[in-house]
Structures are given as C-alpha cells and as structure tokens.
Recover the amino acids of this structure.
C-alpha cells in the first residue's frame, strides 16, 4: 500500500530511510540524489511530474533525514539499499533516475538487478572509476575535512558544481545547496568520499543493458563533463542524450524546465498514456 506525502520514514537494512512519495502510476520513478545532497534537490522534478506519475525521492543512508549504521559505505551497498527500499515499498519495477553519484548507484543497480528496472535516467554522471589522481584528491579532501570541518569543502564544491550563470543569477538555489552540504554529517561525507574513490568502473556493462536510457548533462558540467555522457550514449543499446545550456553539474536545478521536458518526453514514449502537460 502506498503512503503519500513528504518525509515518510521506513526501516531498510537497520536504517531509517526518509522519502517523499507522490502521485500514482504503475511504474514509479525513483530519484536518487548526488553527493553530498539530499532528496530535496529533486523538488522541481517531483512537483512537475507528480500530476501524471508516481514519483519517489529518498535520502540515501546517512544523508538528509536517513540514518546510517556504522558500517563503511560503498556504491554496491547504496545500490543494495535501493533494491531493499523498493522491496519495502512493494515496488517490483521502477524507472530509476540518478544524478552524479545517484547515477553511479542507478547504473550499479541496473547491472546487478536488471529485472527490477523498466528504464534508466542518468544525469550529469559517468561510468568510469576514479583515476589515481582523483582518488588522491578525495583522500586529501577527507584529511582536510577531518582537520578543518566542512566550510572550505562546501565553498569549493559549490564553485565547481554550478555554472557561472547559476552562481550569478540563482543565489538562493546556490545557498540552499551550500546549506545542505554544511548540514550533512562530516562522517557521512568522508565515508562517501571513500566509497566514491573505491567504486568500480561500469563502462564495460553498457552494451549489455537492454532497457531504454535517457542521458542528461549540463553543457558546463566540470565534475562529470559532457564527454562522459556522450560516451554513455555511444555505448548503451537504446539511449538518447540531451545537453542543457546554461547548466553545470546540477542540471536538474539549474535548468528545471528543460530538464523536466526531456524527462517527460522520455517517459511518455515508454508509456504514451501518461503524457504529462508540462
Ligand atoms: C556527485 O555530485 O554525486 C559527485 O560529485 C560525484 C563525484 O564526485 O564523483
């Protein structure tokens, strides 16, 4: 049975997982946020799509209002959480939409639990693992955070994540993201940096994925650049790529209207009966 609303709590693998669940439809769209954010970053998509679809956004363990047990994090663990979360909500199949780290989790889950997914939406993400240089940077960042806290990390992240135009014109959105980072526990951030550094490359798997994929990427994404999305699009069996002008790494927040239009078009093709008027 579906509980509808904001901030619903459910126990998954010993953790409280907090989620929003709106709308109705046979195959829900599950949104997975990036690092180090929370489910609220999907609000423009939840609002736009809930009239015609069941939409669910959850806080990954340790983020937002979800709790985390002591064990180490990994992308495998987060992907297992997604499946256990779907089990707890009695969702047999979903359309999964992940941004950046959310995309790593979605791609991992689709690989290991193919039957549980009808379609895949990957936003500002990639299939490569970290290079040695990127790993070293993550370990330096962990040390920096342990010594000095989150302030400098949050400032650097914001400056890299958003495009120039967003930094100038969407000051409230930028500050909201900064506050989300600052309100995330230091332990969650350092444990996730380690999980990101240790994640496996999944590029080999793309030609073996037979569900349709939509790929979206901000043209000015400096963290997971557009060429990574082009690679995904060149190697999936069924995929479409759209790049978004005046958007960096958080394309869903920087250009929500264009982003929602592409998502809606994609879902409508999967099931023409559910065309949303957005
Ligand atoms: C994210 O937005 O999820 C992260 O920037 C991903 C990463 O650092 O690889």
């Amino acid at each position: 049975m579906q509980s509808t609303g904001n901030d619903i709590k459910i126990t998954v693998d010993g953790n409280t997982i907090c989620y929003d669940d709106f709308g109705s439809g046979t195959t829900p769209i599950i949104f997975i946020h990036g690092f180090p954010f929370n489910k609220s970053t999907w609000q423009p998509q939840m609002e736009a799509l809930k009239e015609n679809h069941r939409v669910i956004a959850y806080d990954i363990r340790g983020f937002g209002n979800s709790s985390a047990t002591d064990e180490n994090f990994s992308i495998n663990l987060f992907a297992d959480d997604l499946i256990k979360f779907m089990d707890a909500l009695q969702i047999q199949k979903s359309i999964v939409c992940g941004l950046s780290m959310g995309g790593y989790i979605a791609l991992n889950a689709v690989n290991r639990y193919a039957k549980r997914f009808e379609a895949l939406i990957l936003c500002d993400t990639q299939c490569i693992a970290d290079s040695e240089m990127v790993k070293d940077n993550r370990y330096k960042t962990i040390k920096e955070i342990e010594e000095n806290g989150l302030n400098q990390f949050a400032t650097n992240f914001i400056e890299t994540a958003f495009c120039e135009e967003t930094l100038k014109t969407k000051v409230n959105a930028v500050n909201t993201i900064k506050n989300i980072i600052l309100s995330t526990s230091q332990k969650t951030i350092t444990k996730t940096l380690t999980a990101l550094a240790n994640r496996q490359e999944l590029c080999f798997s793309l030609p073996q994925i037979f569900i349709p994929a939509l790929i979206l990427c901000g043209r000015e994404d400096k963290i997971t650049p557009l060429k990574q999305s082009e690679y995904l699009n060149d190697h999936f069996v069924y995929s479409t790529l759209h790049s978004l002008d005046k958007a960096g790494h958080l394309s869903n927040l920087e250009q929500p209207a264009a982003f929602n239009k592409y998502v809606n078009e994609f879902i409508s093709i999967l099931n023409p009966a559910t065309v949303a008027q957005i």
About this structure: The two ends are 28 Å apart (CA to CA).
